[in-house]
Write a structure and sequence with these properties.
The chain is mainly alpha-helical and about 120 residues long. The chain is about 55% helix and about 5% strand. The protein has 5 helices and 2 strands, in the order αββαααα. Strands 1-2 form a two-stranded antiparallel sheet. A hairpin with a 4-residue loop joins strand 1 and strand 2.
């Protein structure tokens, strides 16, 4: 793995670099830092203690338009990170000579669509 991989890994939630937090845990195409895990724990605990049964509004309902606009690049960066991770996984399958047909079927697309999307990376 290249030495600069730690600079490329970012938390999918807060978008902090792995070098800016204590720990980053990887999932399938996503990452979460220890700080966001802590925040998730706090949110879950607060909800457990709350007696309110009111439905939760989507996050954007409590945000201003400027806050939403500021958040869009973070969402796009997470999408890029997930796409890059998917390309790595497909590339690895191709090194094992897994067919485009099997890869496409796994992703819910045709063999041709899989080849067109990932051919340059394998």
């Amino acid at each position: 793995m290249p030495d600069d991989w730690k600079d490329k890994i970012r938390c999918s939630f807060c978008h902090k670099k792995s070098t800016d937090v204590s720990k980053v845990i990887a999932g399938p195409g996503v990452h979460i830092c220890n700080e966001c895990i802590g925040l998730c724990g706090e949110i879950l605990e607060a909800e457990k203690l709350a007696e309110s049964t009111e439905p939760r509004l989507p996050a954007w309902e409590s945000m201003s338009e400027d806050q939403i606009l500021d958040h869009l690049p973070k969402i796009a960066a997470v999408q890029t990170q997930v796409d890059d991770n998917l390309r790595d996984w497909v590339g690895h399958l191709r090194t094992r000579e897994v067919s485009w047909e099997r890869i496409g079927a796994s992703l819910g697309m045709t063999r041709q669509s899989a080849w067109e999307r990932f051919r340059n990376d394998s």
